[in-house]
Amino acid sequence: MKHLLSIDDLGGRAGIEAMLDLTDSFLEVQQRDIPKVPALRGKTVVSLFYEDSTRTRLSFETAAKRLSADTMTFSVATSSVKKGESLLDTVQTIDAMGVDAIVVRHGAAGAPHRVASWSSARVINAGDGCHEHPTQALLDAFTLRRHRGPSLDGCRIAIVGDIRHSRVARSDVMAFHALGCELTLVGPPTLMPERLDGWPVAVTSDLDEILPDVDVVYLLRIQRERIGQALFPSLREYSARWGLSAERAARSKPDTLVMHPGPMNRGIEIAGEVADSARSLVTEQVANGVAVRMAVLWSLLGSGGPIV
Amino acid sequence: MSNGEVFIQGGRVVDATGERAADVRIVDGSIAEVGAALAPAAGALVLDAEGCVVTPGLVDIQVHFREPGREDSETIETGSRAAALGGCTAVVCMPNTEPPIDDAAVVQSILDRARAVGLCDVRPSGCITKGRRGEELAPIGELYDLGVRVFTDDGDCVADALVMRHAFEYAAALPGAVLAQHAEDPALVRGGHMHEGAWSARLGIPGRPAEAESTIVARDLQLAKRTGGRYHVLHMSCAASAALVRAAKADGVRVTAECTPQHLVLTDEACEHFDPSFKMNPPLREQADVDGLRAALIDGTIDAIATDHAPHTPESKDVPFEEAPPGMLGVETALAVVLTTLVEPGIITLAQALAALSWNPARIVGLDVDGHGGAVVAGAPANLCVIDPAHTWSVDGGRLASKSRNSPWDGWKLTGKVRHTIYRGTPTVRDHEATK
Description:
The complex is a heterodimer. By secondary structure, chain A is α/β, with parallel strands linked by helices. Chain A has twelve helices and nine strands.
C-alpha cells in the first residue's frame, strides 16, 4: 500500500483485518506508562487540513508523536493559502522540505488523490468532500470488533442519516461490507445517494421498522444547511422520524450498540441520554482513533521491523 | 508555386455527392478541375494524396478560442492552428469571452483578428442575451448584419422560458439565424460537477442529472414549434434528449443537433481518478447515453459532430476535480477520434463521419454559402482536407497546437490523421505540419 486514499487501497477483507490486528498492538502501546515507541523516529508527517477538524487532526498528530515522528501542521487559516497559493504549489512546497507523509483533509472529493499524484510522500486521506474517510471506517470497524468480534460476519448495521453527503458512510459501507456485515441505509430519500448501483446495502426510510432487528445503529451528523437546500423540512421533523431518541433506543434489542463519528448534534440525530448510555461506543471510537492511525502511519512509513 | 496552382494528386474524393478517385487542381483559391489522372501544371505545388481521402474542409461549429479575455489559455491564432491541423477550414467560436460577444465591436475584432491569422474562417456566434445573463436580448439584428448566424449563451443555458420564446420570435425575422442552446437547467445542475449516476454516487461528487438537459430540450422544442423558430442543441449528451429531437424532427420542428466526440466515446467512469481533464458541461454520461447518441448519429437525429474545444490553462486544471473549470480540448483530434472509435469499428461509415464533421455543420450555421462543406467540383472555393486514414499516431496533450493541454485523449493511439488542409486555395497544413 503506497497511499491510503480509499478503503479499497487496503485490499479487501484480509488487508482490513490485518490493519485491525495491527491496531491491537498499538492499543497495547497506548496503555503503557509511556505510550511512545521509536518506530518512526526521523520521519516527518505533515497534516494538511483545508477544513476545520478537531478530533481527526489531533488524533493523527497524537498518533505520529507516539510513533516518534516529527509532525508539522499546515492549517489553512495561518498559511499562504490565504495569499492565494494553490493546492499544487502548497504540496510542492511541502514536498520540497522532504516530508514522508501528508495527511490531507479537503472539502473537494479526490483532493488527496491529486496530492498523491503531485508528491513523492505517502498520502493519507483524512476526509475528502463527500467521498471517503478511510481511517474513520477503520476505527469504526476496530471499535465494533472489540465488542462483537473477532468476526463481524452477519452483524446487522443500520447507518442512519445523510448518506448522500457523507464520506464516513461511503468508507464505512465498504469496510463493514468487506468484513461480512449486513448493511441497511436509513434516512429520507433526499439524503440517500442518487444511485446505488453496486452498493452492497438495503435501503429504507423507516427507522422504526428495522430498529428491532439491528445490532448496531450508526448515526451520522445532520447538517442544518441541508434544510436550505430543500432536502428536508426542519430539524424537528428530521429528529422525529430519524433521530435516535431514548424511547426509540428502548425499542431496540438490549445489546444493540450505538455509534456516531462525531461531532454530535445532541437532541437532533441522537438524544443526549442515548449518546451517554451504556450502549454508546462514541467515546471509545475517539479513543481508538489514535491506535488506528498509528497502525496506518506505521504501515505506510515503518521499516517493517518489530514495533517494540 | 510560381503559377499559383496547387495540385492534389492521387486521392479519393469523398463529398456529399459520393466518392471517386480524382486529382484536384486549384487555381486562384478555387477548384479549377477535378478528374482522374490529371497532370499538374509546371511549377504547381503538388500535394501527394496517394492512399488519402480528399474531402471538403471540416467545420467545427463549437469551439472556444478564448479571445478576447483569456488569451493565456487560447488565442484566435493558436486555436486556428489547432483547427487547421484538425482539418478545419471554418469554425464557429462561442461567445463566452470576456467581454462576451454581445456587441458588434467584439464581433468585428474577432473577424479582423481571424482574417489576419488566416488559418481558417472563424465565425463568432453571438449571445442571445446581454452579458449572457439570460434577461434582455442582445443586439441580435446588429450582430446578424455582421454575419453572425448562431446565437447562444453557451456555457450558460437560457433558463427563462419567456426570454427564450421571445428570442425565437425575434430571430424568426432573420433568415438563416439559429438559436443554439446549452441545455442544462441551472437549478437541476446547481453545485454539480459530473454526471449524476453510479459513479458520482460512488465518488461523492455532486451530480448533474441528464434530466437537466432533456427537460430544457423538451421545453425549447415546444417553443420552437410554437414560434416556428430554428433551434440547435449544442453538445447533446443524453439518450433522452436524442429521443426528443428525433420525435420533434418527425413532427416538422426546425431542429438540428450536434454532439461531441467525447460524449460519443467516453463515459463518467473516466472521472474515476478525479482527473479534471474529464470534466466538462454537460458531463460525460453513462454507457446507455453513449449508445443512444451513437444510434442518433447513425439515424441522422444528430446532424453534426462538434468538439466544444475548451482550452484551460494547466494552472486552472491542476486542482481538485470539483474546483476545476469544465471543458476539454478537441478541435485537433476530433477527426482522428471519430475515425478510430466510430468508423474503423464499422459503427458509422466514412461518408457519415464526414457529413457530420463537414457539410452538415456547414449548412446548420450558414457557412455553406461561404464555400465550406460543398461538393468538390470545379468552380467551388478550395476549402479542402486531405486525410490519411492509415496514419497512426499518439496524442500528447502537451504537443497539440493549442495553448492549453487539457485533452481527454492524452495517451490515446489513434489511426487516421489530417495530412493536408487547404484553406481558400492555400495549404494551412502540409504533410501533417501547419504551414504558419
